[in-house]
Amino acid sequence: MQGASTKGVLSQLGLLEVQARSRRAQPQQQPQQQQQQQQSHVKELKVKVEQLILQRDQLRAEIQAHQNLQKLRMSLDKPCEEDEEMDDDSEDSQILRLMARQTQLRDLLHAHHLVGGYDIVKTSQGKGVCVSLATAYEGTYLETYKLEIDLKPTLRISRHNIPPFIPLNSIAEQSHMQTDIKAFLNTLSQHLNAFSSRKQQFKLVKELFHKSVEVLESNVLCSKLVLMVTVPRENTSVLCKLDYMDHTRCLPTRVSFECEDEELPDSPQWKKNCSLLMETPVHKALLTMKEMENIA
């Protein structure tokens, strides 16, 4: 009995010794785990700091580039004023000038596109642009013309489908395309819209009055129109000549009449008809004259 009792005490002492060792070892492991967790957290913070520094540098670079572009944009809008800070011929300076010219064109053409003017897309990997000029008359879109413009080393029209009777080179020279792209595109757009509008008017005259009004003459620029109308009461034919000398407008600059009755063109009624044709699109003026029974 005594031997069994001794074994039981020894076994209990051994168990207590194991538990004591376990308690002593556990406090040693906890600081080690905490240290590893802290080191891992520090690494994460360092990575985050590096990312934030990189973002900060990128934002600074973008702000600086934007400020340089704004200065260049102002110098492009005011060609007589030179930017002293960007007066070097370095590659970075040339790239910034090119970017400024592109953003200027893009913003300008986007604004005109919103009002039915023209649109722009990049070409040749950003070294040029393609301008689309849409024409319209009374809310109806007509032809769209395109021209490609090289931006470097100078502005230059490389390709286009502008009608040959539109004086493109003359417009570019007179509007100072190299220094004022806005004036050039505005003038060109006026020419194209006026031409398309005159062309559409002549088309409507043929469609609406093919039985009563005879178109005797017109040209490709639609700057001249000769009509033959009939005065129903006198049964007299009148030759109407409309000249559109201002190619940026769709209304005639001169209207004249010829007929056998020499007194008719000077009559009050036909003087009113002359003013009507000068101030109103030709198809609308003819419609009014027909409603007033001035023509058959």
TrEMBL record:
Q: Region entry Disordered: which residue ranges?
A: 21-41
**Xref: InterPro entries:** CENP-O
Q: CDD domains this protein is in?
A: DRWD-C_CENP-O, DRWD-N_CENP-O
According to the record, the signal peptide region is: none
Where does the protein end up?
Chromosome, Centromere; Nucleus
Residues in a coiled coil are 42-69
Predominantly, its location class is nucleus
Q: Name one GO cellular component term.
A: nucleus
Superkingdom of origin organism: Eukaryota
Query: Which UniProt keywords are present, listed alphabetically?
Result: Centromere, Chromosome, Coiled coil, Nucleus
KW Repeat (keyword) present:
no
Q: Where is the composition biased (Low complexity)?
A: 26-39
Is the keyword Aminoacyl-tRNA synthetase assigned to this protein?
Answer: no
Q: Which family does it belong to?
A: Belongs to the CENP-O/MCM21 family.
- What name does this protein carry? Centromere protein O
